[in-house]
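worker-03 picked up job from queue 'complexes'. Input manifest follows; two sequence lines, order preserved.
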Amino acid sequence: MKKKIIVENTFAEAFPMKASRLIITAHTKKWALEAANSFVGFATSVIACGCEAGIESHLNQNETPDGRPGISILIFSMSEKDLAKQILNRAGQCVMTSPTSALFSGNFSDKQINLGKSLRYFGDGFQIAKKIGDKRYWRIPVMDGEFICEEFAYQTKGIGGGNFLILGENIESVLSAAELAVSKINRVKNVILPFPGGIVRSGSKVGSKYKNLIASTNFEYCPGLKGLVNTKLNNKVNSVLEIVIDGLYEDDIKNAMRVGISSILETKNENIHSISAGNYGGKLGPFLFKLREIVNV
Amino acid sequence: MFKVLLKTKFKIIANLNLGNISQINKTVINKKNIENIDLLYQNQKVKLKEIFSIEISKNNKTKNEIMIKGSNEFFDYLGYSWEKNILITDSNVGCFAGAKMKSGEIVLNGSAADFLASEMEGGLIEVKSNVGDYLASSLEGSKVGMRGGQVIINGNVGKFSCFLMRRGLIIIKGNVDEMCCFQMIAGTVIIFKNVKKNFGISMKRGTIILMNSTVQLEKKFVKSGSINFNFLDLLKNYLTKNLLLNDLKKQKFVRYFGDKNIDGLGEVFVKEKL
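worker-03 finished. Artifact:
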């Protein structure tokens, strides 16, 4: 008889963030993806990247403003100022530079973030503003033709830090379970997994013994420190990986967690011991995602 | 919402100033409010009920519809400063139709005389037939023409169209007469058939798309070339989705700059010959 994977009676703790959705299009899907990957590069955690960003979905030609293949990306930051700075810098350095690309906002709100409004100055006076429908675009001359950029992106509310931990006997089983969960969560709209391949191995806790560090390794979940520290891992657990989820709405994160955890539970993999989650005792973040409620165990 | 049918009680044989009909946008729609709107007929103040019979019924739309039956070339200032609602005529109208229009929609099932959409700020005007001179231009004494919105003309257009146009989109499916886009400041104009002399003269900025590949531009326009213009992809997609216009799809264009006599940065896209 196969062993049942335990869902621990705990919760993930998440925080409010500022978010925005952008749509990158290009002549081919390959180049839309190149520009998007460049934009979301070095955006795994607000701890040192300034933002968290990821690819939300691939868009086909009839889903984009200019009828070309596109990629929808979500970007999250802790403050309005950081979000605006990160979007502008990444748009200018990663999207405008990418061949055949164009950049559009993917959401709407009353809080505007300068996009084409600032990037237009790269046109050195040859830039052209165009209002099509209700939206204003900037056409900036570049060496492969022109870079089209919407005048504004828009800031909306988001939630960062939805997560769950996969605890297992060996790295092979845990990694394959995590990969399965990522592949399922990637189909959920309004969420991103900001870490490499959607998976984190260096789960962190707040603070450090070193004064200058704001975060350090979450030693309670490090199997290599069993016996040395007060660990949360039993003798059978030798590997832990985490999946971190940022989303626009609480329900989207719940849904993504449900999809991810359920996919692992369904495998009934004997080498996966349990599913847990990272939190700070419920004292810091206003959003608590209780694992057992989410997967209805 | 409501459908208001205004039917002429007799044949209009002199200028009828209908500018005040736009008050319908700001008042509660009922017979009393509408019949007392002041109009000018033969320079005399008249009540709307003296010219039109009024029928009000409910429609299943999100906007009010005002339908005018029996219109002709004497119907001036129709839809002046029009907002929100839909205005429809069954035939021709006179001058200044849709001038200073802010939003909403005007459908003219006939021709329009001079100054259609002058200083228009937003909304959509569709004309089933021809339009006179000074389409989307500035009104007398003003320095800026059309400032926003969209105009679709299925017929031909007279002289000085798009004079001092500042913003917006105009689609002309027929020919345009002399001095088209004179001193154009910005905006987008798509012309399907021929243009006449002094086309784009003193154009400062803005975009003109010529769908007739046989048009020969005057020397004031400099050929730039045929490259990949993302803007045209965006425009094509917008026209297809919102105005059901597929004509730009799969077309290639050559770009010209002008008017070089005034160092203008206006651009003219001419459809490439196949």
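worker-03 released lock.
The CA atoms of residues 72 and 92 of chain B lie 5 Å apart.
The longest strand of chain B covers residues 2-8.
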